[in-house]
């Protein structure tokens, strides 16, 4: 017998606990009361959706109001999509499809954020909804003691170990200064800091509590130590939770400290910018082994507003023919004109298109990470006028690789 269709509506505040119980269940995780307290403070119920089978909540998803730093533009509001999950016995009934359509229609109709962003639990889920992989992260591992090149100066930024209460205001101040300079970084309100620094025993995976370092007034790092070792004695893996610095000296000083922690075996950072300068500081750059994977996925909700929200690194005048099955208001031809100041004009166009692509490909290029030349080589972007692909590549490329320090 056919099951009745699932329905969707905005979450009511009284359903928050049930919402998280179901979503955590979808991730095969037990919901703990300390974590639920954090989630309650983070969620904006009027921007969250419940998926229902009759009266039973079987899935959901939420939008958090955040700013993300866009190329050349500084922080701009984006819809940070989170807490997407469907109960294991309710899958493949169209719940996620309904949620995605509802979120995108809602953002478009209300004229809210022009861009949505998320971290994907699996790489195969979100492409069909027009999301593209817009930033990557590196897992970096370097043996403890790895030497710097001669001449790297760390003396101007003495590193101190602080307790959590002392460190937090310093870190918050620094983060607020650094985030607007780093493409892909998102704003971190107090409730998000609470979650980021949450340090319950069950979240440590056998490692120590978090330790906090500050380098003068210009950088901070957070790490744990996981014990290993053998008959020769204890040896620890130094697990970096975050390292943020606004000056080269603070960056180098923090890494030097982490590489030199007594009894360290290896320093591991699982979410580093792919262009983090650490390998360039090392006498043997191969000592730092990196594995790269996707991080942020971006969805252009309203193509014209989204393309105007960032700035560009080279002038261009291109007509883009865009396919968008889910958001028909984006489909069709658009003229993107970028002047020498990097600002864009975006208008509907009847002219012959220069490039053909899907909305997910534009999203992949949006933060400057994926190049149009690579998209064209993968036959995802079709060049209809010679020279259009390199022109788009130059315009969208950024000075730095986009990066998002935290999973939200
Ligand atoms: C991922 C998840 C939300 C999908 O929900 P769902 O309700 O089963 O999705 P839908 O029924 O709407 O599926 C829509 C389409 O996406 C496809 N799809 C769904 N999950 C997929 C996955 N994990 N990988 C690849 N394709 C997937 C479906 O096959 C379907 O394709 P079709 O339209 O061609 O038939 C759900 O499986 C889940 O909760 N997983 C565990 C938690 C999780 O990973 N959440 C995502 C957090 S970023």
List the defining traits of the structure above:
single chain; about 400 residues; alpha+beta; Aminopeptidase; Nonspecific Lipid-transfer Protein, Chain A; seven-stranded mixed sheet; 11 helices; about 25% helix; about 35% strand; binds coenzyme A
Question: Count of helical segments?
Answer: 11
Biggest sheet, open or closed, and with what strands and sense? 7 strands, mixed
Whole-number total of structural domains: 3
Uncertain residue ranges: none
> Care to count the β-strands?
19
Which bin fits the share of residues in helices? 25-40%
Strand content: 25-35%
- Whole-Å distance between the termini? 39 Å
| Average residue pLDDT | 97
Q: Mind telling me the CATH superfamily name of the largest domain? A: Gcn5-related N-acetyltransferase (GNAT)
Architecture per CATH nomenclature, i.e. the level-2 architecture of the largest domain: 3-Layer(aba) Sandwich
């Amino acid at each position: 017998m056919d099951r009745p269709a699932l329905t969707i509506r905005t979450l009511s505040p009284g359903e928050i606990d049930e919402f998280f119980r179901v979503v955590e269940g979808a991730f095969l995780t037990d919901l703990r009361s300390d974590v639920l307290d954090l989630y309650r403070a983070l969620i904006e119920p009027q921007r969250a959706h419940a998926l229902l089978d009759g009266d039973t909540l079987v899935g959901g998803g939420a939008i958090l109001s955040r700013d993300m730093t866009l190329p050349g533009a500084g922080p701009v509001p984006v819809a940070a999509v989170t807490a997407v999950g469907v109960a294991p016995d309710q899958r493949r009934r169209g719940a996620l499809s309904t949620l995605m359509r509802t979120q995108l229609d809602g953002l478009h109709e209300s004229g809210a954020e022009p861009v949505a962003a998320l971290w994907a639990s699996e790489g195969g889920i979100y492409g069909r909804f027009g999301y593209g992989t817009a930033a990557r992260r590196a897992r970096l591992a370097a043996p403890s003691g790895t030497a710097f090149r001669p001449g790297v100066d760390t003396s101007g930024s003495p590193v101190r170990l602080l307790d959590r209460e002392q460190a937090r205001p310093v870190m918050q101040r620094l983060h607020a200064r650094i985030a607007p300079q780093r493409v892909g970084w998102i704003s971190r309100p107090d409730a998000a800091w609470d979650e980021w620094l949450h340090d319950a025993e069950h979240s440590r995976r056998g490692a120590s509590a978090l330790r906090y370092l500050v380098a003068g007034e210009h950088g901070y790092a957070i790490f744990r130590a996981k014990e290993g070792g053998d008959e020769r004695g204890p040896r620890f893996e130094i697990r970096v939770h975050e390292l943020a610095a606004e000056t080269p000296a603070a960056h180098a000083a923090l890494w030097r400290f982490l590489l030199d922690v007594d009894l360290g075996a290896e320093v591991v950072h699982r979410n580093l910018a792919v262009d983090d300068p650490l390998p360039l500081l090392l006498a043997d750059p191969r000592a730092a082994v990196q594995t790269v994977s996707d991080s942020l996925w971006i969805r252009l909700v309203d193509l014209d507003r989204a393309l105007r929200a960032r700035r560009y690194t080279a002038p261009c005048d291109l007509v883009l023919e865009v396919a968008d099955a889910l958001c028909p208001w984006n489909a069709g031809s658009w003229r993107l004109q970028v002047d020498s100041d990097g600002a864009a004009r975006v208008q509907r166009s009847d002219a012959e298109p220069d490039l053909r692509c899907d909305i997910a490909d534009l999203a992949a290029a949006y933060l400057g990470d994926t190049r149009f030349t690579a998209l064209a080589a993968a036959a995802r972007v079709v060049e209809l006028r010679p020279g259009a692909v390199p022109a788009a590549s130059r315009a969208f490329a950024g000075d730095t690789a986009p990066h998002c320090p935290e999973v939200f």
